[in-house]
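Title: Prediction job returns without error message
Component: structure pipeline
Severity: low
Priority: P3
Assignee: unassigned

Description:
Job completed but the reporter wants confirmation the result is attached to the right record. Sequence as submitted:
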Amino acid sequence: MSKEDVEILVEKLVQTILTGSALELVDVEYVKEREWYLRIFLDKEGGIEIEDCHWVSEQIEAKLEELDPIKERYYLEVSSPGLDRALRKDRDFIRHIGDKIEISTFKLFNGQKKFIGTLKCLHDGNISIDVDGAEINIPRDLTSQVRLYLDF
């Protein structure tokens, strides 16, 4: 199975597991670092707790053991996406309208590679942010990373 196929399958399995619960699937990633990691990121109103992660981990582990779709040895991690979570899906952007975000681009855009501003919207493939009262529209396909911005 390809990396993408594993992510799609696991996303479907987790969505089924979460049906009827207050938990929401944020993202699934299957990546090779030194070893393979299958990471599942969850959230819920008020934040997730260790028991939530444990429950999902047990459920998905049993399902993956039954189906055995992943031939490589891997580590399963179930966690919160964190305070500075990456925004990847359209629903992430919709949920965080009005929040401060940090956008990194692959190449210079308007003379910069990093932007910090308040997310206004995602429209026609552009991320619209307010930076000190000026609206900037950055094409989503030019972004290397979009994260919630933490201001300490």
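Comment from assignee: result matches the submitted record. The chain has two domains: 3-79, 90-148.
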